[in-house]
Amino acid sequence: MPSDRSDSLVASRRQGAAAIPILVRIGIVVVLLLAVSLSVPYFASVDNAMGLLAQASIVAVAALGLTLVITTGGIDLSVGGVISLSGLVDVILIGAHVPWGVAILIGMLLGGVIGAVNGALVAFLRVPAFVATFGTLGIAAGLALFIANGRRTTVLPDSMIEFGNGTVLQLPYLVIVAVAVLIVLEVALRVTPWSMRLRATGDNFRVAVLVGVPTRPILIGAYVASGALASLAGGMLTAQLSTAGPQQGEPYTLSAIAACVVGGVDLMGGRGRLWASCLGAIFLAGLGNVMNLEGVQPFIQDLATGVLIVVAVLLSTRGREWVARFGESFRKAGLR
Amino acid sequence: MTTTDTTGRMTRSGNAVLGAVRRATSQVPALGLVALLAIMWMVASFTVPNFASAGNVGNILQQSSDLVVAATGVMFVLLAGGIDLSIGSVYGIGSVVLSGLVLGGVEVFLAILIAVTVAGVAGFVNGVLTHYGRIPSFIMTLGMYYVLFAVAQILSNGQTLNLPPGTVLQTLARGNVAGLPITVIVAVFAAVVAWLLLNRTVFGRRLVSVGLNPEASRLSGIPVGPVIVGAFVLSSLFAGIASVILTARVQSGTPALGGLDSNFEVITAAVVGGTSLFGGRGTVLGVVVGALIIRTIGNCITLLDISPLLYQAVMGSLILIALIVEAIRTRQEVS
Amino acid sequence: MATVTPLLRASGIDKYAYDDNGQAIRGTTVQLLHAVELEVEGGEIHALIGENGAGKSTLIKVIGGAIPSEAGTVELGGEKVRFGSSRDARRQGVSVIWQEFSLAPKLTVLENMFLGEEPTVAGRLDRATMRRRAAAAFARLGVSLPLGAVVASLSTSEQQIVEIAKALDRDARLLILDEPTASLTSVEAERLFAVLHELRAKGLGIVLVTHRFDEVFEMADRVTVMKDGRTTGVHTVAETTREELIEQMVGRALESYFVRPKAMAGDAILEVDRVTRGTAVRDASIVVRTGEIVTLAGLVGAGRTELCRIIMGADRAATGAVRFDGQDVSRWSIARRLAAGMAFVPEDRKSQGVVLAMSVRRNIGVRGWLRMRRGPLLVPRRERELARRQIDNLRISVNSPEQLASTLSGGNQQRVAIAKWMEPAGRLYIFDEPTRGVDVGARRALYALIAGLVEGGAGVLMVSSDLPEVLGMSDRVYVMRGGAIAAEVPIAEASEQLLLGLMLPAHDNAA
Asked: Which of B264, B332, C111, C291 places its Cα 20 to 30 Å from the Cα of C299?
């Protein structure tokens, strides 16, 4: 029966919702890691692995917030600017004798406020998220440039530098922070109705409004979380580098988006896994790490990230269709 | 029944008023912007020292030339309902290619042609992957930003390529024709070409239609894909020309010629110039004036000795303000 | 269950149509509902039948709280109720299962059942209660579904079951289903009916909006017939016949404003040969000749619009061929087919027919831009002249050609959507519901226009759900049913009864 066949085709397309199943992605990563550890000397050492994870954790924290935003069907381009700005704010506060932990918290408050502006623009004015957050990116990055200028260098407290570079039982503190953020968010999402409301908002906005999901608070909350977590990432980066520069957060917008995309977050909204975004961050850090070990120039790494993200998105938007078309022609060929 | 009558009549008169407002604003934005610029110049000439000097106004015009060109280019992408965040690096790659070729002894005009073509190719890739690959334009072009930056780094080997003195490029940057700086003439020429493209070609009409309603356009026989690719190509071509102007001005090629600052400037100029971010609406005159407004603000920041580092933040704020104004205007039209 | 007060009593419901500016249009011809009555008992299945546009959907929208009515009252269990929204209605015991489901496809069954009204304990999502309530609802239905399955992975019928379970969970007393079997296979439909029987036995009132007589006679206890926004009959199913029901559904006065073209059919301009696309269009073959008007009659969802989209290239057919003027155009793009002389006026003029935010002049000019060039540049004067010619030709009432299309009335927008195809004249015009939402006066002008096209030598393929229009305008009628061409009827043999009988799925071909 022809109708039966087309029905099953539709069903299989529905079930193959993600272009590449998450398990396959993990498998690819594992195989790659094995291959790399065999071929690149030093890569498989514990020190290198921990350094890699520490690097990944900064991107991961930003990517976690971004995952929430993308799940609502939006985007946050201000991440990089917020990372730069809050790093500087942290340093200034520390210079004013604020304990560094408190400084980072205050920085997160600032990041949250920037996120609230983004969220309000998207939720109330329904403006495209990429433009609204592009505007706030300009404001944050610009303010960072402004306050960085002529600032006396502040020597960061040893404990903060230790936080950025030290380990406990071989495990970097930064990794512990990222894992803690992941756990807190996972629990918050799972225990409350937040997760389903978040996904419903990005999945089908009309239905979400119709059944009574408070879409505005959900949207604003996602952007606030993204801003605050970007800010935390800024603090972590500052601790790791022992300094804050006005442009040190810039590459993180793309890295965080790339981590989400590699982690399988659906750019059309409605679907995203926090831990998968973390894996995406680890994958990116691993890529960077290998290129560093192999002596690849840093801008080539930018190039790789740029290409990677485009290819990853391409696979998620058109990959399924291409696979289906390939299967179709294959089937036809088989029939004839 | 009577209540319905009243509400009916009220709606009608309300519509009449709204319609009048709409008609007025549909004509006025560009004119309103010209007035805004005039007021800015007037106020500045009284309050900002040295603003009104003859040299300064010429300066503003000359400094605006690259921005005018790039912003009219990006307008095409915004009209199609997308965004182009790769422009900052198109500047970089254009300048590196141009300088490298000139240093390598290639004829200047040929070098310019090649540099602009390279820029156009980047736009072509942006357009094809955005439309046919269904990658959101902000991700595609942000990825392209980093890719182009890296390519420019590789080509320049990470160094600044200083141009030899006395080339045609120097004349281009400093020369005058009939008392007008050549760069200003180039900018005016680019704006006129953009205006013709938008208002006097089939492509321009189709672009506006696609930006406003892609599905209806497709069903009317408009080839949507080529139109969108064309918009991205134009954006990059114009950015390439802008990069030539800027390279000539600084007499050197570097990957960091544009950077994020240029991304912000260019999009802010287009948005302040009244280009809608929802697609389909924008005028060349508005964008040109938007670019002049931005350069005027930059000029005042310098003259008033305000930190130039605030510039990017000002650009970001202007985007948000323009966005809010636009959203409110659109909402009124919808209701 | 002989209750004195019925479960639902809707009486004297009036609903006006609204024009584009949000003003109610009054007058009997365009009133959507006219003093409609509907009574449903608890423990009965009540069928609601009528032609396309008879007002069934509007009525259940009013009862389900989705839209307000201008007059009339709704009583539930003897108490007067007023619903501000469909959520409000659901809370008070009236749940409507629309054809377009209110489910988030990427969420699970369990999540969708409680989305927006999640049970919580001190802010914590109470999954145990969710599972218990969902299990209870499914148990009442006698159906089991994997609660953790993503809704997008379910079949249409399973998604429907989720909607019904959700309604039961909110203690629905009245369940309204809008053509629930329209996209179900017969096995799935049987399962749904078993569920509905179960619910009837438990005392729920069920309203079944349907087009299928077999469903009415198998399932329903009583049936209400609607025509032109009025209630024309209420019957106990056991005491009525299919013929009686059809009689009350049709029989509109044939208005005399149709304009029949004086033209002779010529050669075939369009041949559609055994075209199939999924289940929407199945093995459909039609022919349209120059000088004739051919209509596609059928119910909403019969595949008429889908067939038109395949013909003009907006969608691709999986198998079969489309020949235009003898050439196989199956692989041509839309642009190429249109350039060859096809013209398409889509049903949804606001989102597809015109570009609302663009001027009338440009909307009319869109097809002619390529020919308005001198060198590379377009000469606006030619566009202005074209617009002015067509504004006169089609009598589009505008203040100025520069006016935005959004400021025009529905009929005038439709004329703009047609005007763009006048120069150069097409050789095949496809009209999808050309007169929907157009007032009576403007209709006549549209008919004259269509007749003029045919007299000019073009062929016309028209989709229409308006039977008098089909009878008044066409030379031949194809009736579509379930994606297939059910019959070809020469106009001399056609009558409303015959066409409707062919359109409605009959008992013997329900499988």
From this structure: C291
